[in-house]
From TrEMBL:
This is Protein phosphatase. Pfam families: PP2C_2. InterPro entries: PPM-type-like_dom_sf (IPR036457), PPM-type_phosphatase-like_dom (IPR001932), PPTC7 (IPR039123). Residues 134-373 form the PPM-type phosphatase domain. Its EC number is 3.1.3.16. It comes from Forsythia ovata.
Amino acid sequence: MAASGTVAASGDLVVDTLVSGCANFSSFAKPTGVYFSDRSCRNCRKASVSMRKGAVKGHKGVQVYFTFDLTERSYISSLPLATWSSNFRTFSSSCYSDGTMPDLSTDGSSCTDELRSLAISDQRTSVEWGLKLLSGACYLPHPAKEETGGEDAHFICVDEQTIGIADGVGGWADVGVNAGEYARELMSNSVRAIQDEPNGDIDPLRVLEKAHAKTKAMGSSTACIIALKNQGLHAINLGDSGFIVIRDGQTVFESPAQQHSFNFTYQLENDTRGDPPSSGQVFTITVAPGDVVVAGTDGLFDNLYNKEIAAVVADATKDGLSPDVTAQKIAAFARIRALDRNRQTPFSTAAQEAGYSYYGGKLDDLTVVVSHVSA
């Protein structure tokens, strides 16, 4: 989530050094686009966030719950796939967080020791699931941040049927802080919190609350955690990351983006000035075999409309492609649109609705997690 008008710091992964150098929080100036408790601060509006239609504005500290029963099936025609390359980071493990940004093969065949150290023990008793999630992911950092790993993070826990994504707020780069460190620590702590959950009864809100309480890195980020249990998805989303559910080529559910104002997302932070986990929206969504869940950061949803994502998923399903390959195709399509200045995108639509003169895509870190629902 690169803040509008900012330049990424070249050494923005040395967050530990920066923390020790900025220990005096009373004199620490927060960057443009980062959450302030004073809502009248106009220059706080620059945190990158799309204003997708259907956004629901919650209130700080007030939990909002939604329940959806998606039973009708319908179909829309597919759009042509964009060309794509194999230069992606993809991941596969029993349960992992991508916090260490390993270099893995596109078939997800390898896993670093650092990631294995975060894995939930395979000795834990498995639950007999009526439905299962088969998930794969693709992460494309902003080109200017490839060497430092970008600011997105995600995890997939196969046995626990849970996925999560986070997007560090890029405005922190203005003061030399890589918010990706916060996002990665938040996701790592989420994995550990899942390990403490009752078997078969993972509560995404509870997981996020525990992870947030233990995350001490400087920075802030969005968060989205989705668990499959009791024949349905249970999810919490805070900020402008999110997910959609696709059935028979059509989007049947979209989590609305949360923002305080245009280009100013809800965000978690290791400080009382951030939004609390309870500000997130909690969802319970009935799903069926054959449904596809696509979760992503705003690098995805700012550049592709839902119908475009659904078209890629429909073609990938027809071709029998795995979730990780489908994620690669979606990410490649979104990156192409991000670089296109001659097309209308969700972000340019939102900018225009907010009174700004903007056209084309928005280049950003890009995470896509695709999950197939199966019996």
